[in-house]
């Protein structure tokens, strides 16, 4: 939404009505197909129209209504459109054709393979952040940039454009550190642990995290089962000033806002191209005021990054773009052969985090080890530990209980700590033969968790009951499905039954 100095000339007028329809972040206006305004102006279904109320203006997508719940002279607004315009019920809106956007021309050029420079990408990102582009245009842009269709120069320009259309934070303490995992590995909820350990040791770590794009849970999804994450910028500042760090949803603080809109389109397309991933990650880090950033790249046959060669190429791209936007990066490549921890899904991953922080006997050893490794690197780039000594400092913070105390303090500062939910329905998926676990398909395990309801159903997902190299007997549980409804559990069970070797069992010794 963008402000306008006055009401547009020659605009038609319709009465605002709250339709009560959730279209997520996409503003939609519902108009009768036989509405005189629609007919006179040629507003077809899926057309884009400009709505104005006082100095508030937005561009919305038209959906035609054939039923009588909407009366002549009314414009039904989706929840997203209603939030953006803030009308009173029955207030008069001005409706007109939207201005022609240069960004649409730039998107068409990219579809045909024309390289885009910073001015063109900035125009696109401004219109993306301002919700002036339809989902069709957004999907076209995301698809045109996927794969290897963006050069290194374009990726740098895209990153800068994404930074420049949002706010950029400044912090009084230096250096400001951050950590990010490129994803593709189920579980692996190390970020809350790293933030707790690093801030307990004195680091400044204002962590903004994303929600799931193609995975069963993002860091923000898991953290939300423990504490509020939808903090506005002033609240985020207060938490960091008080505790040294936070774990909040980046979309709530409007850092790199164009990225949050693009993520909404990437999620159903299940596209997370290299250039957009690099721009997404680094624009968020730069916008949050980070100066030194650790990037974790899990590598494995069914991870997002499947080979060392691909990891090396991604590392080079991250370092090149990071340097161009003023970030100091340290990139580590880690084992991505199997899920990390037991839980896959927001609440299940949160329970793992709590077990590690509380040093419970059943805490996942692999999650603990990975968190200590990454926290050690963060402490080193923060200048709090000498190279090679960070892991020992991190271990002391965790084993002494200081990290657990700090995590509770961060949760209280963000609005209060809470207990993650438990699923109502579970089902075990068992070994069909005795043997040794020789493989785990990360992607299909993640799909089973999503079909069970994650991340929308916070308690849903999968818990892994075995690890690579473990001996199992016939009928022994390999993983457990968790769901909030019987229907979602049955859906996930049907998927698992139709698959072969989500967990591969080989002959034992």
From TrEMBL:
Residues 436-503 form the Pyrimidine nucleoside phosphorylase C-terminal domain. Keywords: Glycosyltransferase, Transferase. Its EC number is 2.4.2.4. The keyword Transmembrane does not apply. SMART domains: PYNP_C (SM00941). It comes from the Bacteria. It catalyses: thymidine + phosphate = 2-deoxy-alpha-D-ribose 1-phosphate + thymine. InterPro entries: Glycosyl_Trfase_fam3, Glycosyl_Trfase_fam3_N_dom, Glycosyl_Trfase_fam3_N_dom_sf, Nuc_phospho_transferase, PYNP-like_C_sf, PYNP_C, Pyrmidine_PPase_CS, Thym_Pase_Put. The keyword Zinc does not apply. Belongs to the thymidine/pyrimidine-nucleoside phosphorylase family. Type 2 subfamily. NCBIfam families: ARCH_P_rylase (TIGR02645), PRK04350.1 (NF003338). This is Putative thymidine phosphorylase. It comes from Ramlibacter pallidus.
């Amino acid at each position: 939404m963008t402000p306008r100095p006055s009401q547009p000339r020659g605009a038609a007028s319709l009465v605002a009505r709250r339709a009560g329809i959730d279209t997520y972040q996409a503003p939609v206006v519902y108009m009768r197909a036989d509405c005189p305004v629609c007919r006179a102006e040629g507003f077809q279904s899926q057309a884009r129209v400009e709505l104005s109320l006082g100095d508030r203006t937005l561009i919305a997508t038209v959906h035609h209504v054939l039923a009588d719940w909407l009366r002549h002279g009314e414009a039904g607004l989706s929840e997203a459109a209603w939030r953006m315009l803030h009308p009173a019920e029955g207030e008069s809106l001005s409706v007109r054709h939207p201005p022609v956007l240069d960004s649409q021309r730039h998107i068409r050029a990219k579809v045909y393979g024309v390289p885009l420079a910073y001015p063109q990408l900035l125009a696109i990102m401004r219109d993306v952040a301002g919700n002036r582009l339809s989902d069709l245009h957004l999907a076209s842009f995301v698809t045109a940039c996927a794969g290897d269709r963006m050069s290194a120069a374009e990726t740098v320009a895209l990153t800068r454009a994404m930074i420049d259309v949002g706010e950029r934070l400044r912090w009084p303490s230096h250096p400001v550190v951050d950590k990010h995992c490129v994803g593709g590995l189920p579980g692996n909820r190390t970020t809350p642990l790293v933030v707790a350990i690093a801030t307990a040791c004195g680091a400044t770590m204002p962590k903004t995290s994303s929600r799931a794009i193609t995975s069963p849970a993002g860091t923000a999804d898991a953290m939300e089962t423990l504490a509020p994450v939808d903090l506005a910028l002033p609240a985020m500042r207060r938490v960091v000033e008080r505790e040294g760090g936070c774990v909040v949803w980046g979309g709530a603080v409007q850092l790199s806002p164009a990225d949050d809109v693009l993520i909404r389109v990437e999620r159903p397309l299940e596209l997370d191209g290299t250039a957009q991933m690099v721009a997404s990650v680094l624009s968020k880090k730069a916008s949050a005021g980070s100066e030194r950033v650790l990037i974790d790249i899990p590598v494995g046959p069914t991870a997002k990054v499947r080979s060392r060669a691909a990891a090396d190429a991604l590392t080079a791209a991250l370092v090149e773009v990071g340097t161009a936007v003023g970030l100091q990066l340290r990139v580590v490549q880690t084992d991505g052969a199997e899920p990390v921890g037991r839980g896959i899904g927001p609440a299940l991953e949160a329970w793992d985090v709590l077990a590690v922080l509380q040093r419970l006997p059943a805490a996942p050893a692999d999650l603990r080890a990975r968190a200590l490794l990454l926290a050690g690197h963060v402490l080193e780039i923060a200048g709090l530990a000498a190279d090679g000594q960070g892991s020992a400092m991190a271990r002391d913070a965790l084993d002494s209980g200081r990290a657990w105390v700090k995590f509770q303090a961060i949760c209280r500062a963000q609005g209060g700590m809470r207990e993650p939910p438990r699923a109502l329905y579970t089902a075990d998926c068992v070994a069909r033969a005795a043997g040794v676990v020789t493989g785990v398909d990360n992607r299909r395990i993640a799909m089973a968790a999503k079909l069970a309801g994650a991340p929308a159903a916070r308690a849903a997902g999968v818990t892994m009951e075995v690890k690579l190299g473990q001996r199992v007997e016939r009928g022994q549980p390999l993983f457990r499905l968790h769901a909030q409804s019987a229907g979602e559990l049955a859906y996930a069970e049907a998927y698992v039954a139709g698959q072969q070797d989500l967990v591969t069992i080989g002959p034992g010794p």
